Amino acid sequence: MGSGEEEEFGPSALGTKEHWDAAYERELQDFQESGDVGEIWFGEESIVRLIRWMEKQKMPLDCSVLDVGTGNGALLVELAKSGYTNLTGIDYSPFAIRLCETIIGKEGLSNIKLQVEDFLSLSDELSGFQICIDKGTLDAISLNPDGAAEKRKQYVTSLCKVLKPEGYFVITSCNWTREELISEFQEGFDLLEELPTPKFSFGGKTGNSVTALVFQRKKNEAIPLGHVGLDEQRKD
Questions:
Q1: What is this protein's function per UniProt (predicted)?
Q2: Domain assignment present for 207
Q3: Domain that holds residue 80
Q4: Backbone dihedral region for residue 92 (phi beyond 0: left; psi -120 to 50: alpha; all else: beta)
Q5: Which residues of the chain have pLDDT under 50?
Q6: Domains in the chain, number
């Protein structure tokens, strides 16, 4: 990898809790003042894409779903409106959870569980989910200025802890390619499919700006304690 890419994915405030606390505190105030729910990560099409996949897989409406880094809860709201009844959202920012609670209350939804939780330091009660969803959380962790590589390793360990054997993990990322994500989750997970995402053109070349993959946790696979992370993959 060249130096330009190393700078692009270097440490950033976007990888810190302080940044997201401040961002969601502002979004909470904006919602209370104007009803603006704030940004939907990767746009509404990312939510539609996920719900279509769940419907295609004929996932039961009571399947247990964990939204990792739920933010304003836009995904959970749409899942609930689509009839799914066993939904949990976690975020390490208490302001995000307060925003999500406020939005869900205004929508009149009661089948969504929310809690302040750091995915890298989970409480024991979070386990046994059939589907885990990440839209941008691993991306943010990858930008943390304090030991991002170790945090990504802990992410995989936490994912194996909360997800049932043969459960599904759906990740949407703008920082990592299909091949890099496959390598990142090779311990404990098999790639099932790549979901279609918008393409962009630049300089006569066409590519994807966003990658969306569906993994399945391997049956009887031990929780990994460490693996070759994304930093090692990107070394020249």
A1: Protein-lysine methyltransferase that selectively catalyzes the trimethylation of EEF1A at 'Lys-318'.
A2: no
A3: 3-147+156-200+212-233
A4: alpha
A5: 1-8, 226-229, 231-236
A6: 1
